[in-house]
Amino acid sequence: MRLAPAVLLMGLLSGSAGELDPFFWLSALRSRGYHAGSLQADTTGGDCPAECDCPPTFPVAMYCDGRNMTRVPYVPSRMKYLYLQHNLITAVPDGALDNATNLVWLMLHENRLASGKVGKRAFSKLQNLDRLYLNHNQLGSVPAGLPRSLRQLRLDNNRISAVPPDAFEGMSNLTVLLLHNNAIQDVGGALAGLRSLTLLDVSSNQLQKVPESLPEMLHQLYLESNAIQAIPGDFPARFRQLQYIRISHNQLTDKSIPPNAFNVSGLVELDLSYNKLERIPTVSTSLEHLYLQANQIKEFSIGSFCSVVDIVSFSRLKVLRLDGNEISRSDLPSDSALCLRLAASIEL
Ligand SMILES: *[C@@H]1O[C@H](CO)[C@@H](O)[C@H](O)[C@H]1NC(C)=O
Ligand SMILES: *[C@@H]1O[C@H](CO)[C@@H](O)[C@H](O)[C@H]1NC(C)=O
Ligand SMILES: *[C@@H]1O[C@H](CO)[C@@H](O)[C@H](O)[C@H]1NC(C)=O
Ligand SMILES: *[C@@H]1O[C@H](CO)[C@@H](O)[C@H](O)[C@H]1NC(C)=O
After folding, report:
1. Which of 138, 93, 99, 145 is nearest to 119 (CA)?
2. Is 91 exposed, middle or buried (0-12, 13-18, 19+ CB in 10 A)?
3. Most exposed of 65, 115, 148, 274 (fewest Cβ within 10 Å)?
4. pLDDT of 347
5. What does the alpha-carbon distance between residue 82 and residue 130 come to, in Å, rounded to a whole number?
6. For ligand 1, is residue 68 a contact (CB within 6 Å)?
7. Alpha carbons 64 and 24: distance in angstroms, whole number
């Protein structure tokens, strides 16, 4: 039990691999001599449902993943980390998690949850919940009554088409929201209050426009593989923190991009590949990665990168992809070497 804080710290500090790997905790514990099979409930750490593992050395975690479970088991109230992923769970009824008031992580991904089977008050007692993974289920809409304390919410790879306007209300600490691979046509104003959101992934949906009322703290915005036809006039100038924008595989044309839309400092990566652009849009000199492959670009306009080429105003571009367009290396103007002096890779 004394080892728990050290193990916890390792998990949190070890970066994404440790954080994302549900088996990380167990393997860390195994390497300390603990074996799942030898565990019995109620000997050391407290009670534990027979079908799950509750390591005595880390008594606030309960491992029930990958066991063909069809329902949410009894959860002792001491639990902070609950691993229920990769099962056959079809429902989270109201009350099922009411004893689990200390939960910090709830992993329910890769199950068979459908809308209507998640109770409106199923999560209402989880006031300390930090991460909720509901990805890879069969949800048709964002479940109601999600805890406001969430910092990470994964809803990707479901069948979500409906995002109620109050779906994320009050989640002022939410930093990561994953909604990719769903059937969303419009998120309406649902994202408006997410003042801490830094990563939003709505790729592979059915959006026809850039979502309105995007949070202004965004660092990463992923909108690829939708049906977006236009970029709003104040985008992305409104987002001072925005560093990564991906809008590849959409329906953008030259006309649908306002003149200086991407000429905003701070941008590091811009992916506009697989659209219908005929010209290179004007980009900020701070940009480092620009992906424009598979458009219909017909000319290499150096003015898109450098308005005046002098000793200070050159482009910071390192990678430029223009392959799959209607230009070739011979279209590169002679002054491009000066403007794009840092470009280690230009693909044409
Ligand atoms: C889950 O069920 C499948 C199909 O019946 C079976 O092949 C698999 O071994 C089961 N897994 C466990 C952990 O019981
Ligand atoms: C909650 O805890 C009480 C008291 O330990 C127990 O009787 C009840 O079955 C638990 N409920 C659930 C849903 O686990
Ligand atoms: C956000 O985090 C702060 C600091 O941890 C906390 O005091 C606050 O209650 C949290 N907000 C919500 C909505 O949970
Ligand atoms: C891009 O923006 C900068 C700073 O606002 C400005 O000086 C420059 O002329 C703009 N580039 C183009 C091609 O309009």
Report:
1. 93
2. middle
3. 148
4. 82
5. 12
6. yes
7. 14
Report the residue among 149, 194, 217 best suited for mutation to probe ligand 3: largest number of ligand atoms under 8 A from its CB.
149
Q: How far is CA 128 from each of CA 135, 150, 283, rounded to the nearest angstrom?
A: 20, 8, 42
SS3 of residue 106 by DSSP? strand
One digit per residue, the tens of pLDDT, for the chain of length 348 reads 333 333 333 333 333 333 444 344 444 443 433 333 333 444 556 799 999 999 999 999 999 999 999 999 999 999 999 999 999 999 999 999 999 999 999 999 999 999 889 999 999 999 999 999 999 999 999 999 999 999 999 999 999 998 999 999 999 999 999 999 999 999 999 999 999 999 999 999 999 999 988 999 999 999 999 999 999 887 777 888 999 999 999 999 999 999 888 998 899 999 999 999 999 999 999 999 999 999 999 999 988 998 766 666 789 999 999 999 999 888 888 878 888 888 877 888
Residue identified by tokens 């939708």 is: 226
Cα separation of 322 and 332, whole Å?
Answer: 11
* 252 contacts 234 by C-beta, under 8 angstroms: no
Name the residue with the closest Cα to ligand 2, atom 14: 74
Residues in the chain: 348
Q: Tokens standing for 232?
A: 């709003």
How far is the C-alpha of 74 from the C-alpha of 321, rounded, in Å?
53
- Two tokens, residue 99: 């004893």
Distance CA 191, CA 194 (A): 6
Domains of the chain, CATH where assigned: 28-142+152-160 (3.80.10.10)
Element containing residue 320 per DSSP (H, E):
strand 319-321
Give the number of the atom of ligand 1 that is nearest the alpha carbon of residue 66: 13
Q: Is the CB of 99 under 6 A from ligand 2?
A: yes
Give the C-alpha separation, 269 to 338, whole Å: 21
Give the contacts of 35 (CB within 8 A, at least 6 positions apart). none
